[in-house]
């Protein structure tokens, strides 16, 4: 489904390059509609006390199964905890 990380990166470009983000060309669950471009590797991490989702390319929409959505939610919560734990959350 996707990559995830709680590693800090200098910037989003570094994150995308190191984690090989973006489209894979695969359609593991079939095509949702005519606009569906297929599977997308994404990353969730932290940068400067903020939770970051990086897709590797410009994206207008994404769709997930309920299980994938729950996994993403859990990873977002973990990343936010990292920001709080290191005391670097910025407003």
General description of the model:
The chain is α+β, with helices and mostly antiparallel strands. It has one domain. 31% of the residues lie in helices and 15% in strands. The chain contains two helices and four strands, in the order αββββα. It has a two-stranded antiparallel ribbon with strand order 1-2. Strands 3-4 form a two-stranded antiparallel sheet. The longest helix has 20 residues, at 66-85. The termini are far apart. The mean pLDDT is 81.
Kindly state the number of beta strands.
4
Shape: globular
Uncertain residue segments: none
Number of domains: 1
Fraction of residues in helix = 25-40%
Order of secondary-structure elements: HEEEEH
The number of distinct helices, counting runs of at least 4 residues, comes to: 2
Q: Strand portion, in percent?
A: 15-25%
What is the terminal-to-terminal distance?
31 Å
User: Would you tell me the overall average pLDDT?
Assistant: 81
What class do helices, strands and sheet pairing give? alpha+beta
Largest sheet: 2 strands, antiparallel
- Give the neighbour order of strands across the main sheet: 1-2
**Cα-atom radius of gyration:** 14 Å
């Amino acid at each position: 489904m996707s990559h995830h990380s709680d590693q800090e990166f200098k910037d989003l470009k570094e994150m995308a390059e190191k984690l090989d983000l973006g489209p894979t060309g695969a359609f593991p669950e079939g095509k949702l509609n005519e606009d569906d471009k297929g599977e997308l590797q994404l990353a969730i991490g932290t940068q400067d006390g903020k939770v970051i989702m990086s897709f590797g390319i410009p994206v207008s929409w994404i769709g997930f199964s309920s299980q994938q959505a729950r996994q993403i939610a859990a990873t977002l919560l973990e990343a936010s905890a990292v920001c709080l734990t290191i005391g670097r959350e910025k407003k």
